[in-house]
Design goal:
Length: about 500
Amino acid sequence: MFYFSKSKYCDFKQCPKIPWLKKYKPEEYVIDAETQARFAAGNEVGDLAMGLFGEYVEVTSFKPDGSLDLNKMKELTKQFLAEGREVLCEASFDYQGLYCAVDILKKSGDGYDIYEVKSSTSPDHDVYTVDTSYQTYVLRKCGVKVNKVFLVTIDTDYVFDGTLDLQKFFKITEITARVEAEIGAVEQTLKEAEKVMASPNEPAIDLSESCNAPYPCAFFGYCTRNLPSPSVFQLYRLAYEKKLALYRSGIHSYEDVLRGGVSLNEIRRRQVEYALADKGTHIDKQGIGAFLKTLTFPLYFLDFETVQPIIPRYVGTRPYQQIPVQYSLHILREPDGALEHREFLGRAEEDPRRALAEQLVYDIPEGVCVLAYNKAFECTRIKELAKAFPDLAAHLFAIEKNIKDLLDPFRSGYYYNRDMGGSFSIKSVLPAIYPDDPDLDYHNLEGVHNGSEAMDLFPRLKDMPADERAKAEHDLLKYCELDTFAMVKVYEELKRVG
Ligand code: SF4
């Protein structure tokens, strides 16, 4: 029998090779931190949405080994439907090997409505129509009368007032018409999928728009394994569609780019030329000098770490709002002075913003020059703090107004070497300038090596035993400290060459 699930069906619609590779070459599946976070967010929001319509029965059942007990779930679903239960969560259905679980199934008249829960803020993605059309198809084949289909997404206008209001946190959008227009295609798609999945031969499918939409495909590394490295897919900030157009016209390597006379902006041309020949470091002394002249002393190097809870935890915040929880600050009072360091780490049990804002205005006087790397992030956080705490606003705005961007000299093409590989993030620039300095290597940090890990760790602090928590807090502080120390070192290099 042909077995297929909702997620495989959605994968197949994105690209038939995805479910085939998952089945025959699962070791090639590379899941990044962002995708993992998206899955975790989906589970968190799914659990919360169960209470959207009041009382409900949950069908989810597990085997002793912790895996889902699908047979039990299907049995329970039948039982609850026979009992006429009003709201079922994770109701599970199987029609001749086609499986699906419905997030929320709600009685309506003589049938049921499907509510599909997404952690997204928009109901407008085509993949949601594909997903719910499959569910509707399976349920109707199982004899369930599906009347309407809804998407449950998150309303970012919702402001948390201390008590989570599910009716306002979630936004419900009816998509029945979209589903009815799509459902006719389900049977034919399943026939094609059955053929593809039965064959041991990898589908001959070339790279396409599907490799990047709705999400970057986890098999992209596998499917581009025969391309030269670097390839056109590494060109700096070029839209995926343009990279794909180059690829389709036979331009794959950087040599092809030059040979083919591809029009490149200055930054990409340098990226290509420096990758093909080690030309050392490109330095625009004038540009760097002009940038350095805009800086004044004392000079402050600032970096925030944030969390971004989907379900707001702090009064006055919205879903997905970036909440600053930590900062590191290095200070140079004069050009060759000793380096000072200040830092802040909030308590995970409470809203850290007020304490952070108070210490920030204590640590940074009004009117001094502050450097951030990609300053839009720090400036936006400070403006949000000013809005939240009007009594500190004047001082916070005075800090924000004087922030300069250490990314500018790199983004402007004043400094480049091939090890940057076309990326100007501090994580690329730092090792390209200081390749052999273990003190500047994020890999040598304990516990926290990047912003995603910091974001994941901070909310868990409150549940940790004291010694584990002390270690985790130490790791967070060290990580953030390296971010601003890295900025100091980058600044020193600009000063050396500028
Ligand atoms: S990378 Fe592209 S071609 Fe390869 S499986 Fe993914 S979507 Fe299909």
